[in-house]
Amino acid sequence: MTVPGVSATSPDLLRLVAVPVFAWAAYRDIETRRVSSTVWIPLSLLATILLLWDGWRAWTAGGGVWPYEFLVPTAISLGLVVPIAYLFWWVGGFGGADAKVLLVLAVLFPTFPEYALGSVTFPLETTPVGAFSFTILTNAVLVAILLPVALAIRNAAAGRIAPVMFVGWPVAWERIPETHGRLLETPSGLSRGGLDLDALRMYLRWRGLSLAEVRDDPERYRDPATLPDEPNPPTDGAVTAAVGTHSDGGRLESSPDDAAEAAPIDDSEPDGDDPWGADAFLDDIDGSAYGTSPETLRDGLAVLAESETVWISPGTPFLVPIFAGLVVALIYGDLLLGTLF
């Protein structure tokens, strides 16, 4: 396989096919916070084929190619990057898509590729470690560290000085229904532990309400007696959702992937000690809305019912720094070790 003007092995050229897919996945993660698992299946198959192909080429090349240029970096890639991805997913440090993309990268890029363009060979800087997926990971971590700094500079330039200026920015309440992230405010002030906006959308869809309706009459909807007898499917909180209508005229919102029927809530008199019906909502969906507690939901609704502008954390998905780390690795190499050796 050849590409005009580029000199590289066939496996390395085929690896470039995956780069636009990672770019699309990063963009989709920014826009929807949802990346289908089916994206990674064909990439995993391609990665496995290319890994075996490279192994066969290294074995037949003789000399020290097999143990030093293939076996050692591959062992580091599969034996270090894969466990790191799984561990961070298990403890909640990564989302599912972040972990899966690192697993794919560990198999797809176990060793440093080489792309000769004229007299220049990319990546410009290699490392003694030789595990390219580890380079991508360290690059991604460095990019992720720089994001809060860039955010703080942006806020400072706009005159927005606050303790949370490194992790968020203020937005108008009208943008909240189409915004991803987490509230950085509670009724008592700024906080890092505010309401997840996906959980907010789940709650509003469950009640068949819009945020504008809640703001128009917050006292009414704070009363749990206004909870619907037959709540709508809460969906998974994604911004995009199909909108339907109950036969009684109430609005029903559901995502295309959410085929589950919502169970009716308890017909008994609602508990007057349950403002906003937060407990009833979480009990009805069997517990978890991205770790949201009834208290967090109540605090978030109280803020959004009154405030014109609220601070939110965009919660940039780690898949974005991973893609940036991949691009930097392919062009420059290892940002950390490349400057030390």
Automatic annotation (TrEMBL):
Listed GO CC annotations: plasma membrane
GO MF: aspartic-type endopeptidase activity
Pfam families membership: Arc_PepC_II, Peptidase_A24
Organism: Natrinema ejinorense
Keywords for this protein: Cell membrane, Membrane, Transmembrane, Transmembrane helix
Domain Preflagellin peptidase C-terminal: 307-335
UniProt keyword Ubl conjugation, yes or no: no
Localization terms from the record: Cell membrane
Bias (Acidic residues): 255-279
Key word Membrane present: yes
Segments of this protein annotated with the region Disordered: 217-279
Transmembrane segments: 39-58, 70-89, 101-124, 130-153, 318-340
Full protein name: Peptidase A24
